[in-house]
Amino acid sequence: MSSLKLSTKINKYDTLRTVIAILIALIISAIIIFATSETPIYSINNFLFGPIQKLKYFSNVLEMMIPLTFTGLALCIIYQSKHFSLIADGCFFMGAIVASYVAINFTLPKAIHPVVAMIFSGIIGGCIGVLPGILKIKWKANELVTSLMFNYVFYFFGLYIVNYYLRDPEASVFASYRFNKSFALPRILPGTRLHAGFLIAILFIILAYIYIYKTKWGYEIRTVGDNINFAKYSGINTAKVIISSQFIAGAVAGIGGAIEMSGMYKRFLWDVTPSYAWDGVIIALLAKNNPKYVPLAAFFLSYLRIGADMMSRRADVDNEIISIIQAVMILLIAAERFLAYWKQREENKLAKEKYLNAKKEVQ
Question: 167 forms bridges with which residues in the sheet?
Fold first, then answer.
């Protein structure tokens, strides 16, 4: 009973830390707005309430949620095994490139075309995702460093593919040929750009939660993350678990790239990497690596970004203020000593309770 109480208290502690970190970040941003803006109330009003003023604006929040959800899920899966790879960025970007190739060069029925693109993108994303894990297992290479290096490799490799095989020479900007119309995902909200990728993202949230918390493979990933030595002595093939989890995470990110292309674009236009993996880090931190909290974290981050963008267009505050909010949140959530005294107090209280109960039983 005491251990259950302790677990409940720790969960409340983690939630409290996250909420307070968000509030502190928002208060700091409000102070900056009041110090720099000539119309601070108007600016804050647009920042906090702009995204819900019209259906079109709110749909923009939901649209931005989709890629954030996929990279957030990918990083949740990776971080469950305590391997801090950021290869999801390269997987997402190459997933978009592969999907663009399928969109331009394949002629398929409307219902099948985007699905085929997602399958190819998922396979390529998975193959890319395992590379830092292989280097970690074979040569003890730091997966954070190698994943960041691989991101640059695949970014420039992707641009090479677009430049030499997909680029439209008649376009006035850097762009691929137009996608076949059968590649586009259907809209699910009339008058907006919100597409069926939103429903696919919900499906992947459910599947990721089931995979991590309801299957043998998910249990093995969590065991490896909690204590890799214990996992080895228990007979778990830790190398296989690490590789498989990174393949699945890379596949999820790759599919996210395909869905972003299919839902939001008519041709490939990215001349710089969108860096969704860094956003995925924030999502995973806010969600505590639990897929069921990813949609809340993705919605929160998306809402802030749309609000900041509306504030920058309507008022005199740059939307880069969102970077300050993100930085403060990451610093406070990642800081182990932030509100640690509360957790220590609850642990001491429960330990004292347990001691007194044991003493009574002896007497």
Answer: 176
For 73-102, letters b (16+ CB in 10 Å) and e give bbbbbbbbbebebbbbbbbbbbbbbbbbbb
pLDDT digits (tens, 9 = 90+) for 310-319: 999 988 888 8
* Residue 195: strand pairing partners: 187
At 120, the amino acid letter reads: F
Q: What is the pLDDT of residues 144-198, one digit of tens each?
A: 899 999 999 999 999 999 999 999 999 888 999 999 999 999 999 888 999 999 9
Q: How far apart are CA 128 and CA 281, in angstroms?
A: 18
With helix as H, strand as E and coil as C, how does 257-318 read? Answer: HHHHHHHHCCCCCCCCCCCHHHHHHHHHHHHCCCHHHHHHHHHHHHHHHHHHHHHHHHCCCC
All structural domains of the chain:
1-37+317-357 (no CATH), 61-315 (1.10.3470)
Residue-wise DSSP of 211-223: HHHSSHHHHHHHH
